[in-house]
Design brief:
Number of strands of chain B: 6
Shape of chain A: extended
CATH class of the largest domain in chain B: Alpha Beta
CATH topology of the largest domain in chain B: Rossmann fold
Order of helices and strands of chain A: HHHHHHH
Strand content of chain B: 5-15%
Distance between the termini of chain B: 26 Å
Oligomer: heterodimer
Shape of chain B: elongated
Number of domains of chain B: 2
Structural class of chain A: mainly alpha
Radius of gyration of chain A: 28 Å
Largest sheet of chain A: none
Strand content of chain A: under 5%
Structural class of chain B: alpha/beta
Order of helices and strands of chain B: HHEHEHEHHEHEHEHH
Number of helices of chain A: 7
Helix content of chain A: over 70%
Strand order of the largest sheet of chain B: 3-2-1-4-5-6
């Protein structure tokens, strides 16, 4: 590992520890790291955006594909909302974007997300899994049926649907915990690796100093 | 200390318990067993089924904030692909960081270790903005949309791109996604329209809503977060960072379960005490 790699790892580790310091309390270290991340991401996004405009807009123009100018004008019109009196122009590219988006979505969306799912739901009642899927789908949909008063059988079936939904939300929450924990594991693994672990005692010392000074002040 | 008093517990003690549970297995691995699920086997089989000389599109649709969850998955799947006689085209539609993450994986594994050459067996096309319209354009006429790779090399100089004209040329799409709708975009625009196979993995947060697509067979299995990466490392016999992380994962889950049980018991104790107080009044 050369000097520049070591330096990069130390800076990354220091930023991770600054962010983790938020778990103790909001501090100037956390604020500093937060500003670095926001600034860095904004800079990176701008650079990549400009690169895309150059390669996907300017380069084709220079090769004689003049119609790319329409896309560039459309993109520039998105900034029209900042021009006083001319802000209505932003509606033109917005309408195009929304129209294209809906059109593309509809093209295969119905088949992918509705027809294929419906076909898969219509299963033979030969296993407990299949029966559960059908009961879950029907009762869950009935829970969101608002055109009839919720009483009698409607209420009971809706209640079953609600339990199915709660199970689904529980499953989603468990996967969310899995994902978030993975992020912490990755950061802690980095912090506990060479050469970043040298920063851990420094971070602990800063926190202890912080506790000491804050108690002294109060 | 009564159960009710736990309601006033400083949450920083829970953070500390969480941190200890994460750290112990990293310092001293426990080697807890990991069961390989059917979904992971399906993803592995989908990669294995790509014919010799076939073309795989790998889309790392995530950014640095999800690096911990998806980079181990990207590395292990990419390494598996490099062991096979297939061409790999990487392109990102989600975040500007995706080409950098792909580059990180490429450097960590090393194309030369598997006798592969950049531009012939693998190419990093970078990030293409535009979400669904961009994915559609890429699928309909790749050569018209993509002019250069991530490093600015014209695609006419990259022989791998000769075999990719539209999504019909793709044998397998592997989507590693941090955004809920991304696997759906590939299903809509590539799988339904061109009939190509779609598989991959995603962050834990969006895994459950994708289960119906796996049940229906539209997705050829899908890997959930670090757990999925660890299973894939096991099934492809390439132990790596994800397997090491799973010990921490198991300990943290115990901490979370204990915290949920204790907080509920504490709440119940509190409500019973309140009822008793009201009855006395």
């Amino acid at each position: 590992m050369n000097l520049s790699e070591t330096l990069v790892l130390l800076i990354a580790g220091a930023l991770v520890l600054m962010v983790l310091s938020f778990l103790y309390r909001q501090s100037r270290w956390f604020t500093f790291a937060e500003h670095v991340v926001v600034g860095g991401l904004a800079g990176q996004g701008t650079a990549i955006g400009l690169r895309n405009v150059y390669y996907q807009g300017i380069v084709p123009l220079t090769t004689g594909q003049w119609w790319y100018i329409l896309a560039i004008i459309g993109g520039l019109l998105l900034f029209a909302k900042y021009a006083r009196g001319q802000s209505w122009l932003v509606r033109l590219p917005t309408a195009l974007l929304v129209g294209c988006g809906i059109g593309l979505n509809m093209r295969a969306g119905i088949e992918t997300q509705i027809t294929a799912q419906l076909i898969d739901t219509l299963r033979p009642l030969t296993s407990i899994n299949n029966i559960l899927i059908i009961i879950g789908v029907c009762s869950g949909m009935l829970y969101f049926f608002f055109s009839a008063e919720e009483k009698g059988a409607m209420k009971s079936i809706g209640k079953i649907g609600r339990y199915f939904l709660m199970v689904a939300f529980g499953s989603s929450f468990a996967y969310a915990v899995l994902g978030r924990t993975s992020l912490v594991i990755s950061r802690v693994t980095d912090v506990l690796s060479y050469p970043t672990y040298y920063l851990v005692p420094i971070a602990i010392a800063i926190i202890i100093y912080d506790i000491y000074t804050s108690r002294k002040t109060t | 200390m009564s159960l009710k008093s736990l309601e006033k517990l400083d949450p920083r003690w829970i953070f500390l318990a969480f941190l200890i549970a994460v750290s112990i297995p990293i310092i001293q691995p426990l080697g807890l067993p990991i069961k390989i699920s059917d979904n992971t086997r399906r993803v592995y089989q989908a990669v294995e089924d790509v014919p010799d000389g076939g073309l795989v599109v790998l889309t790392p649709d995530f950014s640095y904030d999800n690096r911990g969850e998806l980079l181990p998955m990207l590395e292990t799947i990419f390494e598996h692909l490099l062991t096979k006689d297939v061409k790999v085209v990487s392109v990102g539609f989600y975040g500007a960081a995706s080409p950098m993450l792909m580059e990180e994986a490429m450097k960590a594994i090393g194309l030369e270790r598997y006798g592969k050459e950049y531009g012939v067996d693998f190419v990093n096309l970078g990030f293409i903005a535009g979400d669904e319209p961009a994915i559609t354009s890429f699928g309909e006429d790749t050569q018209a949309l993509v002019k250069v790779d991530y490093y600015g090399t014209p695609i006419s100089q990259l022989s791998i791109m000769d075999s990719l004209n539209n999504a019909g040329d793709i044998d397998l799409e592997i989507s590693l996604s941090a955004g809920m709708n991304y696997p759906e975009l590939y299903l809509r625009q590539w799988q339904t329209t061109f009939g190509i196979k779609v598989t991959g993995g995603c962050v834990g947060l969006i895994y459950a809503p994708l289960l119906p697509y796996m049940e229906s067979g539209q997705l050829e299995g899908y890997l959930p977060s670090l757990r999925g990466a660890a299973e894939y490392e096991l099934v492809s016999n390439r132990p790596g960072a994800a397997i090491i992380g799973m010990d921490s994962q198991s300990l943290v889950h115990i901490v979370v379960i204990v915290a949920i049980i204790i907080s509920n018991l504490s709440m119940l104790a509190g409500s019973k005490e309140k009822e008793a107080e009201e009855a006395t009044i």
